[in-house]
Amino acid sequence: MDFQSCYNNYSFILMEGALGERLKREYDIPFDEIIALAGHIYNEKSKQALKELFQQYINISQHYHLPIMLTTPTRRANKERVAQSQYNESIIYDNVSFLREIKQDVPSDVYIGGLMGYKGDAYKATDVLSEEEAFEFHSWQASLFAKAKADFLYAGIMPALSESIGMASAMESTGLPYIISFMIKNDGKLIDGTTIHEAISVIDNATNRKPLCYMTNCVHPNVVAKALSRIYNQTSIVQKRFKGIQANTSLLSPEELDNCYDLKTSDADKLANDMLKLYKDFNFKIFGGCCGTDDTHMNEIAKNLSRIISY
């Protein structure tokens, strides 16, 4: 089953939980200043640590009979940053191959996504690219993921509309299914002030082959609930198209999180209940974790989702 069929046929899909923050906290492995996590597959210690974390999330999905989306740790491995690093374009192919090696021992229902990201600071929406600039800039990475035969593309923490449109166009041109995930605030808007409704409407109208759906990541589920409850987001297009979250365990705003040096977290039961409310109130179907989450959070979320399916 390909990823688009998985999305259409399953009630729920898991995503991985936190990676980078756990590497720092549990393994004492820091981010690379230029490309963050993308080069970790070339170091035996960090590669093994990444494999252990991904395997934890896969095991949870298998235990509860849920498909899972795994994304390459390549959000910062864009054309400009890779050129500044010691690596070259093969880093994209190698990260997909790394996940494919992990996947080969799993019976089924594991899908590999090429993770892409905003060029500037996603928490501040600085240095926003125009639609045309974004298409040219992000096409490099999108086309490499297509050549590496990723199952889907995923744009993470997108804070501004114009760059999101160009990103969507670059992803669309590959022929792969793709998802745009916004950075949002509890006022129901992206960092640049665009409402969720407007962002979805504009991107859908700007693309012939629309995103599979829209999501948010690095945001607490209660923040998302407030954002979607704003009157300007209570529309049919938001209800039909906004379908998932990779949750941050902190209720802090994007600006506060960006300047926060200690881990902000909440217990697994509480987060799982807050995530479940997004399904009940807004019909979400994709559930993953971001900063502050670990395998205990993802296990509790998967357990709750599996109970709904069994009823």
TrEMBL record:
GO terms for biological process: methylation. InterPro entries: HCY_dom, HCY_dom_sf. It holds the Pfam family S-methyl_trans. Zn(2+) binds at residues 218, 290-291. It comes from the Bacteria. Its cofactor is Zn(2+). Residues 1-305 form the Hcy-binding domain. Keywords: Metal-binding, Methyltransferase, Transferase, Zinc. GO terms for molecular function: metal ion binding; methyltransferase activity. SUPFAM superfamilies: Homocysteine S-methyltransferase (SSF82282). Coiled coil: none annotated. The keyword Transferase applies. This is Homocysteine S-methyltransferase. It comes from Anaerovirgula multivorans. The lineage of its organism: Bacteria, Bacillati, Bacillota, Clostridia, Peptostreptococcales.
